[in-house]
Specification:
alpha/beta; Rossmann fold; 2 domains; globular
Length: 343
């Protein structure tokens, strides 16, 4: 098996302050890097930058990787509060098994990536991190810049939707069991408009406190009974707490996250998405009506809604059979995109 020589750490310039420049970026503008690090088939640890922070990821290369050959590639965003070792790794591994390059990474503030306050949930930061991940991939000699596509699960879908809509480096998008964001969906998420407004105000108050004093007010990310946490409910708690017990995911949630989280929406991004789009959802995935509403808002000429009836939301995170099926559907969709483009 031949090895590829690359840079150990590739530093990319993506930041919130250069939005218009990023929107106009094309694959022809990206410079391929040269270097001295050996990359191998399977998992490779990588770093790149976004918004001045160092992000850490696992780059999965196909088992039959050959030097001099180029491959399609997908940066992956996971659910709210995700760690790269969760659903993103499951999909990145499966993409590599199917001849693609998958990049699972910790967004800023989380896991091995830098940034403070720790565990801050900021959708706009994830939008920028997804763009940075795509630019990192484009800099690698084994990536085909005309075959970089977005992939996201649950709430990562609303951030990846905006990243793909805004950055021309992306050629298409697949979202899975997405948590899509608009006012109607947020009210349904929180139960009532009053509850939504109360949580937003509490988050904004916590952000004001941080900006004035530096104090970070925190609550657990999940709890069996408390309702003031990041993601209430025993069902959610039971899934996430096992990752905390294993030391992979931290059960911490800065309260000011709610300001950034609830000030964000993805509907206007959906209205701008002109690239080929596959949405995979089900009756038992989160907020199915919101998913249908945002899918209808997408103006892309090539789009498909794959509705899967009774598939459970968390099955898209960890059920081997569902993961395999979803990876197959995503790769088939990407191949359709490339065929239509004549790649």
């Amino acid at each position: 098996m031949k090895n590829l020589i690359l840079i150990t750490t590739v530093l990319l310039w993506v930041s919130c302050g250069s939005q218009q420049e990023k929107q106009n970026t094309t694959s022809k503008n990206v410079t391929k890097m040269e270097s001295t690090t050996t990359f191998n088939p399977g998992k490779n640890k990588v770093t790149f930058t976004s918004g001045g922070e160092t992000l850490v990821g696992h780059l999965y290369l196909p088992a039959d990787y050959q030097q001099g050959k180029t491959y399609p590639a997908a940066p992956i965003l996971g659910p709210m509060t995700f760690a790269k070792e969760q659903a993103p790794t499951e999909y990145a591994r499966r993409f590599a098994e199917r001849g693609y390059i998958g990049l699972a990474f910790d967004p800023r503030y989380r896991g091995e990536s830098s940034g403070a306050p720790r565990e801050l949930e900021d959708p706009m930061a994830k939008v920028e991190d997804a763009k940075a991940a795509a630019h990192f991939l484009a800099s690698l000699p084994m990536v085909n810049n005309e075959e970089i596509v977005g992939f996201a699960v649950c709430q990562g879908s609303s951030a990846m939707l905006r990243a793909v809509a805004e950055d021309n480096l992306f050629k298409g998008l697949v979202t899975v069991a997405g948590h899509y964001r608009d006012k109607e969906a947020d009210i349904q998420w929180m139960g009532t408009e009053e509850a939504l407004n109360d949580r937003l105000k509490a988050g904004q108050s916590a952000r004001d406190t941080f900006e004035k004093t530096g104090e970070v007010i925190t609550v657990p990310a999940v709890d069996e009974t408390r309702t003031d946490v990041g993601m209430p409910g025993k069902f959610v708690y039971d899934w996430y707490i096992t990752w905390s017990d294993r030391g992979i995911w931290k059960n911490n949630y800065p309260k000011m996250s709610d300001a950034y989280l609830l000030e964000y929406e993805s509907y206007t991004a959906a209205q701008k998405l002109a690239k080929p789009y596959l949405m995979i959802h089900s009756d038992n995935s989160f907020l199915p009506d919101a998913a249908k509403r945002q899918f209808e808002a997408v103006p892309a000429n090539v789009k498909k809604l794959q509705w899967e009836g009774e598939t459970g939301h968390f099955q898209y995170y960890d059920d081997p059979g569902i993961l395999d099926r979803t990876a197959d559907q995503a790769v088939k969709w990407y191949q359709t995109i490339f065929a239509k483009a004549g790649i």
